[in-house]
Amino acid sequence: MDNSQYRPLNRDGFEIAIICALPREANAVLCAMDEIWYDCRHYYGKITGDDNSYDFGKIGLHCVVIVTLPNMGSVKASSASRSLKMSFNSIKLALLVGICGAVPFKRDGSEIVLGDVIISETIVELDYGRQYPGSFKRKDALLDVHGRPNEEILGLLQRWKIPTILETLRHGSMWHLRYLLQRLNIDYPGASQDMLFQSDYIHKHHGKCMECSDAVGTVCQSAITASCSDILCDQSQLVARHRLEDAAKSGSSKIPDPGIHIGSIGTGNAVMKSAQHRDHHAQSESIIAFEMEGAGVWDKFNCLVIKGVCDYADSHKSKTWQDYAAVVAAAVAKEVLRQYVTAQRLPQPAITNDNCHLLHWEPFSRSRQDSFRNVHGIHHPTPRYLFDGVVKGIGNSSEKVPCNIHAQQRIMASLQFPQMQERAQQIEAAHEQTYEWILPSQDKKTYRWDDLATWLSSSTETGRIYWISGKPGSGKSTLMRFLRERLDVQEHMLPWAQGCSVVRAFYFSWSPGNVLQKSLEGLLRSLLFQILKQKPDLIPEVIDDMRWNAARMSSLTLADWNNLELFSSLQRSILGLQKLFTRVLFFVDGLDEFECSDEMCQDIIGMLKRLACTGNVKILLSSRPWNIFQDSFSDIPKIRLEDLTRDDINLYVQAKFLNNPRFQYLLRCDQKTAYALISAVTDKAEGVFLWVRLVVRDLLKIIRDGDDIRTMYQKLEEIPADLNDYFKCLLFSVDPQHRREASVILQVALHEEHEFTSLHPLRLFDLSFTDESSPDFALVEPLNHRKVSMNDREGLRFRLDSTLRRLNSRCMGLLECTYNPGNLSDLFCGVSTEISKGTLLYQGRKFEPSIYSEIFNGPDLLHSFMLTVDFLHRCCRDFLLSPQIQSLLHQYTEGQYDARMFMVNARISQLLALQRVESGCSISPGIASYIISALSVPEWKDAAVSIKAAHILQPAVEALPCYDKTYSTGWYIEPVLNSWYEEKSNFLTLAIDFDMRGYCMAYLTEDQVQAKKGRPILDYILRPRFEATGAYMKIGNSVPSIDLLHRVLTFGADPNSLYLGVSVWALFLSAVADWLHRGFDTSAINKQAYLVSLRMMIGRGAALVLPRSWVLSDVHWHLHRFDSFRNKNHDRWPKDLPTVEKAMTRLSQPCYAVADLLGTFRVDFGPGIDDLIALARAGMDCY
Asked: GO molecular function, one example (predicted)?
């Protein structure tokens, strides 16, 4: 097993504990971890009575449990250590990591300065003893003092006293320190802030304060809390420090290497703030530092106390150095663990991050699983997929076990997309007693069609696909929903499923939806997601090796699936299920709704047929009877729906009419005419359920308004039998004064984004702004959002109710609003809101007053954003897109309405309004992502409207990361927000990422370039976050922008500035190499952009010799972005690339000449790179 990817099966696998007293100490330690397992806190758990809160992760090869104490002091530390030992009884070493006060001069005369680190050799409990009238006597009998460390710890300490070994400890710690300071945005306070006063010079007022007078010998409260600068402590009382003076003379501004001191540490429950007492203990006990928790931990574990020095334990103590000292201690602790070697343990069941291919998978029986639990004493709940994987690994030690929870979650998140289930939830359930004919009982079977029940139960190898065809509106989707809900394994699938389980997956395509709701990619992602959700232990087996490896690297955003990879993974999952004796039943509704060419449609059909060739798969399809489907499915079982639904339509019409009290009375008065009307409606429908729904609705309005059956007959005769003609009648029936708003609503509903995939449905909240006079209302009147108060529940209810009423009256039923609380995690980022069972009962229900209380009376305003608007049927959208109707809609709005402008302004208003409520954090990132994406499309990125909108958005977007949410993979803004604090990003850098060129050119200044901390602005331009998307998406910066690059270089950006310990120039060269290796959009125009960028960097003084470690560094892969899963371990540079002689570089490590690095690009760039190579070689002559 690869220990670098090891996760323990249970708590017994943890041998290292780190204990911290303060949150700042714990934060530094967590940031120093190589891995943090946020997903395992509930899995590992703790024993009853343990009040500790634990975090888990890894440093080096060690699995580590981290404890943060509830407060300072030995009592809290003792209690926490006791609980830790009971829950984690395999701990071999405990590190107490944090901050301390120190003795400035050790007995040997060597100095300790602030920022040094103390490692315990032993501890002395200073407040354990007897208080006599004139003195305190510490107990120092053998049984009263703490024991010495065990032989292993003593061996480590002795080893670190060897100067050569201590230097390796310091060197490694310094490497970690630089990274942590940059990540946490903590600066070295500087030697000028390291002030040591004479021991007899007390921190107090030395003027007119009576309480602070020397005679009294006390210090006033204001002096205690004041800083040295506040009370003007006498600088002449400072003690000279040779280490600090030497650093000042060298003129170096770099962070000094921390001194590491091993010795005795004094511990007690009182903070040491007396220089005289400090010096007394140092002289009498050989103590070199003071802290407060060591006594509570020392004798319970083999323990090392590792503390960063933040003060001199005197009255001048301040908090200036605490953050820095905590980081230094964490850095040394990390290096200590990297050098600490545990005794080799016997092999144990483990969770690993390794991907694997289980070539011979034989599932264990339930009895064998139960036996395993009993033998190994697993009493805590274990996730099924973890447990099964572990058991298989023990059963066959030659196989690797796929059980990385975090990687599995990332794979699943990358497959999922918003609205994946939306269409299935929108389809109305079959009316009572309809469609029963398709699954008849044995004694009622008829054979007017290819019997579906016979097909489903058959175990023969032929006819694995069944096709349901029907003309528009005939009820195909409703039938597919009926079958998905009603099919039963025992009743309908035997003998095909004899002795097997059945996994079902469905895809209801939707032409009016987003791209993934009507594409091959959406189909494959949906089917694969549903299979792996039901069988998660298959994930490492079926996912491509390189994607699985990338999923284990949290710095990569998985958003780059392609159809070939998806299909291969789906095939492997089907084969994996076959080995598990599992059948697969796919439901694919609406093949005709895919947005594709005939060639692509033929490919989709071929793909489905290939899937059906596997013996454990059957596929149920539906579509309109187009020629391409008629030809492809001529020899498979099928039905034509409109030929078989007359009785169902008659049942529906009867039920709707007879449920109306007024019709019941008319029926009693004239039964013959009433039933004749029902038959007339049924006959005129010609098998089209959608037509029936609309006509019955209109006829019932006639009864409601007081008319009789004869009037209903007349109305029926006037209604066209053709759906499109009927829609036209509905449109013309809109009141003339409302036709403009009706056209606005319909054009907004028809709007689609083509430059990027809009992952948002149209929401009722969006349409609540259709009464605005112009589509750019939020830009014309920036305070427009204040008209919407998210805290005014009554006003919110009235606004949405009014919008619904306008929707119904203006659009005449062509659009409908449904309530989708179950889609919350799809629609918004990181939402974990509790959804009541009562609310879920209304999932997919039409929005109407009867469910208002569930939506508006709850504690969370999120429900108001779950009201989605869509077309009643695809036929409605097709009708509205016809040239004749488009011309009519544009006539009502005096030209084509700018639907994108409206959506951007509506969502700007919502985003700004959400700033004023706490729960808006879950909704805001998704809304912001749409707005930023829309502002970045090619025709808008330079436009004044985009610049103005971006300026209004800036404060709202910069507030988003403050919510500290984990964002889902659905939004384009996600990688930017996930790295916001790490890179110290701002709205300008986000604009660079999204290539909002107009805004960048308007607001990028020299001060911003020079003052930017964290990731340099130059690096944002050179290493685009959307590098992998340029070939298929028209937003985001996919290659360096020459205009922006020229501007930031003019403003003084330094190509040799460092980020994460590597120069921006080295990172750029590595990025170019990786870009070429991974074969992204390497068109001629993109290559030219990189060539120009390389030339500009060399021209601005980029180094011509680079350390080999820089250009081989993995730092380039730490960038959060839309990236491919391709393996990062390719040979970035040729292995025989020569290094530069050390005498030329004046560096201690091997270096490469930039000219040689550029030479490796010649194959891809051609002769265009030669003049750059010559330029770099000419510059080398100066070395």
From this structure: catalytic activity
What count of residues does the chain have? 1183
Task: Find the CATH number of the domain harbouring 553.
Answer: 3.40.50.300
Coil, strand or helix at 468: strand
Q: 532 with 667, same domain?
A: no
Distance CA 818, CA 766 (A): 14
Q: DSSP label at 65?
A: E
Q: Which residue would you say has higher pLDDT here, 1179 or 357?
A: 1179
Q: CA–CA separation, 926 vs 419, rounded Å?
A: 13
Reference 406, options 552, 542, 230; nearest CA is: 552
Condensed to tens digits (0 to 9), the pLDDT of residues 702-719 reads: 888 888 888 888 888 888
Q: Are both 425 and 287 inside the same structural domain? A: no
Q: Which of 998, 1020, 1035 is the last residue of a domain?
A: 998
Q: Is residue 834 part of a domain?
A: yes
Claim to verify: residue 272 and residue 208 sit in the same structural domain: no
Which value, to the nearest 10 degrees, does the dihedral of the CA atoms of residues 637, 641, 644, 648 take?
130
Among 627-641, 834-848, 1129-1143, the range of highest mean pLDDT: 627-641
Residue where one domain finishes, among candidates 643, 675, 694: 643
Mean pLDDT of the chain: 81
Do 212 and 273 lie in one domain? The reply is no
Cα-based distances in Å from 923 to 295, 623, 864, 918:
48, 36, 11, 11
Binned at pLDDT 50, 70 and 90, residue 467 comes out as very high
Q: According to the model, what pLDDT value does residue 1051 have?
A: 94
Q: Is the peptide bond before 1040 cis (omega within 30 degrees of 0)?
A: no
Whether the Cβ atoms of residue 512 and residue 870 lie closer than 8 Å to each other: yes
The SS3 call for residue 66 is strand
- Region of 1166 please: left (phi>0), alpha (psi -120 to 50) or beta: left
Q: Got the DSSP string for 994-1048?
A: TT-HHHHHHH--HHHHHH--SS-HHHHHHS-TTGGGTTT-SSS--S--HHHHHHH
pLDDT band at 136 (very low <50, low <70, confident <90, very high): confident
Q: What are the beta bridge partners of residue 501? A: 582
- Domain identity same for 124 and 69: yes
Strand order in the sheet with 867-871: 845-846, 815-819, 867-871
Average pLDDT over residues 912-935: 80
Residue at 1006 is within a domain: no
Cβ atoms of 591 and 629 closer than 8 Å = yes
Residue 457 CA to residue 489 CA, distance in Å, equals: 9
Our count of domains for the chain comes to: 6
Query: Which residues form the domain of 430?
Result: 405-643
Question: By C-alpha distance, which of 76, 61, 88 is closest to 20?
Answer: 76
CA distance 728 to 718: 13
What band does 362 get if pLDDT is binned at 50, 70 and 90? very low
Q: Based on the domain organization, do 705 and 744 belong to the same domain? A: no
Give first-to-last CA distance, the chain, whole Å.
48
Residue 601 belongs to some domain of the structure: yes
Q: Is 189 helix (H, G, I), strand (E, B) or coil?
A: coil
Average pLDDT of the segment spanning 589-597: 89
Count of CB atoms situated within 10 Å of the CB of 719: 17
Question: What is the distance between the alpha carbons of residues 561 and 565, in angstroms, rounded to a whole number?
Answer: 7
Confirm whether 920 is domain-assigned. yes
CA trace torsion 187, 190, 193, 198 (10° rounding): 140
**Contact 1027/1082 with Cβ under 8 angstroms?**
no
Write out pLDDT tens, residues 753-811.
877 766 667 899 999 999 888 999 988 866 655 677 787 888 888 888 899 989 988 88
What is residue 237's predicted lDDT score, i.e. its pLDDT? 85
pLDDT at 443: 53
- Least confident window among 150-159, 179-188, 585-594, 962-971: 962-971
Q: Are residues 595 and 557 in the same domain?
A: yes
The answer to whether residues 845 and 984 belong to one domain is yes
